[in-house]
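User: My advisor, Dr. K., asked me to get a structural model of this assembly before our group meeting. I'm new to this, so sorry if the format is off. These are the inputs:
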Amino acid sequence: MLKLTLRSIRRSFGRYLAILLIVALGVGFFCGLRLTKTAMLHTLDRYTKRLDFFDLRLVSTLGLTEADVEAAAGLPGVRLAEGSKATDVLVNAAGQTDLVYHCISLPTQVNRLKLQSGRLPEKPDECLADAWNLNKAVLGSEITISEKNEADTLDCFAHRRFTVVGLVFSPLYLNFERGGSSIGSGSVSAYFYVPEDALLMDYYTDLYLKLSGTDGAVYSDRYDSAVDARRAEVEAFLDQRVALRYDAIRQEAQDRLDEAKDKLDSKRAELEDAKAELADGNRQFADAKQAYEDGTAALADERAEAEQLLADAKAELEQSEKTLAAQKRSLEQSKRELAAAEEQLRKSAEALRQATEEYEAASTELNGRIAAAQTAREAAQAAVEEKTAALRAAAERLTALLAAPERDSEAIAAAAAEADRCREELNAASAQLLALIAQQQAGAAELQAAQAQLEAGRQELDRQQAAYDAAAREIARNRTALTTAEQQIPQAEEAIAAGWEEYESRKAEAEARLQEAQEALDEAQTELRRTRVELDEAGVELRRGQLRLDEAQAEYEEGLQELESLDHGQSYVLDRGSNVGYACYESDSDIVEGVSRVFPLFFFLVAALVCITTMTRMVEEQRTQAGVLKAIGYGNAAILAQYLLYSGSASVLGCAIGSLLGSWFLPKMIWQAYNIMYGFSDILWAFDWPLVLISSLAFLICAMAATWYACGRALSRPAAELLRAKAPRAGRRVLLERIPFLWRKLPFLRKVSVRNVLRDRRRMVMVILGIGGCTALLLTGYGIRDSITGVIDYQFEEVTQYDMTVNFHRAMDSSVQEVFLAQHAGSIGSARFLRQSTVDASASGAVKTVYAVSAVSGTMEGFVDQHDENGPVPYPGDGECVINDGLADALKLSVGDRLTLRPSGRAEATFRVSGIFRNYVYHYVYLSERGYADVFGNTDVRLALICAPEGADLHAVSADLASDEQVSNVMVNVDQRARIETMLKSMNYIVLVVIVCAGALAFIVLYNLTNISIIERMREIATVKVLGFYDRETDQYVFRENWILTVLGLIAGYPMGWALHRYVMKQIRIDMISFDTRIAPLSLLYAAGLTLLFGLIVNLAMRRRLRCIHMAEALKSGE
Amino acid sequence: MAFVEFQNVCKTYGAGEARIDALRDVSFEIEQGEICVIVGASGAGKTTLLNILGGMDRLSEGKVFLDGREISACSAKQLTEYRRHSVGFVFQFYNLLANMTALENVEIAAQLCRDPLPAAEVLRAVGLGERMGNFPAELSGGEQQRVAIARALAKNPRLLLCDEPTGALDDQTGKQILKLLQDQSREKHMTVVIITHNSALTAMADRVIRIRNGGIAGVTTCDSPTPVEQIVW
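Assistant: The format is fine. Below is the predicted structure of the whole assembly, which you can bring to the meeting.
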């Protein structure tokens, strides 16, 4: 019996293989898909355990200290605690500049790294780089900290250049997502690890804890509850530490402020001094200026005086000159007068001489009379002699007197001598006269008279002589004076010349002095000007100093205020769920699981059908053999066992091969697909014996049951009937023939095909199921992709109209908003400020976390298109809210229902749902401004949606906005979209997996059925060949029904696919994202096209079989 | 030249040790319009001979001519054409297409050739005017064979090849079938080759070719063949 089975296997190996393959495929896919999640989780589990991936992450806005880490390490239940420093920094690396890298301190305990290549850093300026984004080519190259970083950031780095010595995978970054950043482009390109010493911050940004007792598998409840058990304790600890930290920081800030204040005060004093100094300077300047002005006036006076003096001197000189000239003239006059006087004098002398002569004549006469009287006189001689002696003495005295003048002295002497002689004559005359007097006593009267006359003449003469003498003396004196005067003239001229000289010299001197004075003044003026400039400068400097001081003051005051309002520190205890990679990993593995829940079902179904058809066919083929066996005396059980052995062995083999290959190959393949996102490790082999056994058993039972069913019917007949050849299956009219006008129109061979199609219902059902399943699978695969990518398209093209989201550091009141808008007027096409909070929304017992949003003075129009099928949804009024469709679904809400918002720490508030709009990513509840204020109390505006101007470079705009110090970060929608799209590219691989499995399914089903069909109809086909059908006609004859069935299957597959797609989408529904469950028209085409392609491939393969059918051989058999 | 001519035809199956000579140096001729019965025991090679003549199988050596055309030199496609236009087949097990009515079975053949006879007429001619709309499963063996003959005749072939046409029929029905064949041959001057292991049929033939062990054992011609009705076996 075993031999028989083996032989029949060998004989119908194709059929055996079909069962084996479909079972292998079914088990393989089922186990593979199921195990993929297990393997993925196992891989992650091993990975996280090996690297001690954190259990809790402690973050404080105030930073954490060494002491905090030590304290945390001492907490009960904490196995490891390690602080980590991290910062985003702009770097130049791998040939690009100003990339945003996330720099982390090298861990030693928690979140250790997996070294992909290279080595660990040995020097402080060596680093490890992101193995995901960088390749081995960067080993040995440098990562340079860009100078464009903020000073604070630059200060964090002990080195400016880090040599990449190794590539690592960090458990913190399981997938490709590197997160956002508040600097540069706004998104982190890669991370790199530097030794802790290379980061100079004095605090830790994160504190990672590894708890004890958390050895449960990743994502397992055991793990989660183990972590949750410690959470409260850790939170309390963190709060306490943060409070300490707050005090320390406050103290430090206070100290710093005090110091600043001291400095400020001293600066202020300095400034005051400087001010005083400046005032002093100003005063001095004013004095100097006054002095200068006085000097200038004095100079002018002096100048005038000097000029006056000079002018006077000049006038005097000129006067002197005139005087001199007049003197000269008068001198000439005098000379002339003198000459005239001398003339007169000479005349006088002449007259005198005449007079004298007259006198002498008179005297001679007298003398004659005197001589006559001589005897008279002899008697009086003695008296005359006495008188003569007296006269002589007088003459001598005259001589003496006349001896004084020099020149005319002789003349004068002569004159004097003459006078002497005259006097002697006179004496004689006198004696004679006396004698005469005496003789002539009578004549005495005459003599007397003569005497008196003489005496009168004498007196006259004397008077004349005296006058003459006086005149002569006068002349002499005049001459002397004249001479003196003449002598004085050159002297005077010299004096005048000297006066002029002196005048000139005095003038020159005066001018020189004035010049000097002028120069001194000029110098003084220059000096003054310089001083002025200096003073002005000093003034400006002073004002500047004042400004600086004011600024410093303002800063100080700000600091003071800051200190007053110093944040008490937000602290967070985050678990792994907050790690993007970790969170995504679960949902991604869930997607695989969701898919695995559905697809294998098909394979069970199809495997069962394949078994039934195959075994039925086999039993029919071997009915003679069965009959013989039965006739010989074998029991039904024995014969049945033979077939069960056949199908059972095929199933067991198939299960073994399938489970081995499936659980090895599928996870690997899907992992390959996920490698786009997760490249941290090779997938680990996970084998789930119960799963494999259960699924194998299921398939085995399925195959056996099918065999039982197929054989049971045949074997129930008596042996004789079995031995007889089975009558050919009766031809059958089909329903269509009852509609003659349609039937008649069909070409003849088509009619046959139609009948053939309907001849074997079971086969028909199976083909339709198989092909339909294939189409459904394809449709589902494409549909998954459509639905997910559709979400992105809809979200970013229909719903989201703004270009970027801007988050602000601080609350923006309306004036600040205006300033912000004005400052970036070039970058902002339009902007809408928002209030946004995360809040729990509940209705009908379900709760969802949503974003509550309220637009500041306005609606969302132009920023978010809120519409439903009927058009735009109006912005809610007070007491109303507008929610997205996904939320409405989740909370089972419709328009008019009431939605409750529960903000933490505040009373809940209820709103009437006034509209439901389409939105795909995240849940939103829009409120009016008042509604928002009612719920949250806090009305800070920290968010704005920005539409860039038409045609603007979004990244330039983003960079401009991000450079504003109020802006904490800018998210550009196109970047976000690109990131999400990259992520969803892995969907293509899922689709590929689906296509491959759908193809395999279609191929097996079609091949098996066509094969059976051909074997069954061998004679028929041989007959038509003999009748002279060309090969092509034969093909058509056989395959037309295949095509008809394929198309029918296709049509049946569409609704199946639609339903399956919906089901799968429900399975992989991710919270916060409402997939747009839809299948694109193109996907319908793809699914159909691929199905037909698979059909075509099968038909092409089967055509070769048709060619091989030998007419003669086929016709011989009577069976 | 005769209508059908076999010249030193050999047919060998297999190779080497397992080599079987199905036909060895077979040469014969059949004239147009003749009814030729090829008779031999099971395994003598008569079916091989028929297959070769019908263009269903290839020979190993020699030449086969039909009406001067060398069939043995034809390509597969030419052979199909030859079968399609020149040859009609009647098989032992009728080989009707189960999913077609009697009429359709005839029509499918009639469609193929250039100059077919009207299917319904042919069916009536073979005495099945009443049963045209029935499926083969609804017909008796004789009726089925008649349909098969009608199918062959409808193509209006120049050569009708019958492989044990009576093998699955009782005597009476067999006779009716043979009669039909003889009548059609005479009527249409059609060359009919009947292969049988039943020597009794040789009586109705114009020419009898005996085959033994893959070779010709003898060829006899009979100028006045016995009408089928008179043959007894």
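One thing worth pointing out at the meeting: The longest helix of chain A spans residues 221-372.

User: Perfect, thanks a lot.
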